[in-house]
């Protein structure tokens, strides 16, 4: 089965910019993968940030943006805040009503 | 507003089965698929499967086929997930997530902790 891979961790300075990526072992990620992104702090329910590649979920600030970069999905945080320190997961649609989450990226703001 | 309320924590012995419910409100139940996602302690999110509340069809990740059943009750706007033949590897928080018709869960239940221990 396909594996969805993310960077294990990233560190970003307050006010800085960081781009997380989401890769698919079996090939390229495209808009037809309908990539989505989720934020989760330990012990909390996931929060949906982005769906359908680049659509922000209700209430999500515009410092979060989604895109396709090369053959990967990407989540960019522009102007990082201390509150953005979390785990971030991507999810991809693999076809035939099957989905997979990525391995997750822990973002530290310091 | 959309609300997903899950059943309470469960403790089960290996080999047993567990049923988790997800009662919904605030939207037309039959219109949107429901995902089930789990998270083992200290681990990442794992997609279990989804159910179409309109026709009761389901799709499961390969590793759960034959061990997970998903059903729905349209009269109470509730979806259920049954997990059979439990092992300690099934110890996790299980979440239901409403699909927003754009291939993503956009609303989440609060999670249900299932602990499998002898």
Average pLDDT figure of chain A = 96
Oligomer: heterodimer
Q: Spans of chain B of 5+ residues with little confidence (pLDDT < 50)?
A: none
Instruction: Give the fraction of residues assigned to helices of chain A.
Output: under 10%
Class per helix and strand makeup of chain B: mainly beta
Of all protein chain pairs, which has the greatest interface, and how many residues does each chain bring to it?
A-B, 27 and 24 residues
How many separate helices of chain B?
A: 0
Class based on secondary structure composition and strand pairing of chain A: mainly beta
Briefly summarize what is shown.
The complex is a heterodimer of chains A (110) and B (118). Chain A is an all-beta fold and 110 residues long.
How do the strands and helices of this protein lay out in sequence?
The complex is a heterodimer of chains A (110) and B (118).
Chain A: E1 4-6, E2 9-12, E3 17-24, E4 36-40, E5 47-51, E6 55-56, E7 64-69, E8 72-78, E9 86-95, E10 98-101, E11 105-109
Parallel strand pairs in A: 2-11
Antiparallel strand pairs in A: 1-3, 3-8, 4-5, 4-9, 5-6, 7-8, 9-10, 9-11
Chain B: E1 3-6, E2 10-12, E3 18-25, E4 34-39, E5 45-51, E6 58-60, E7 68-73, E8 78-83, E9 92-99, E10 105-108, E11 112-116
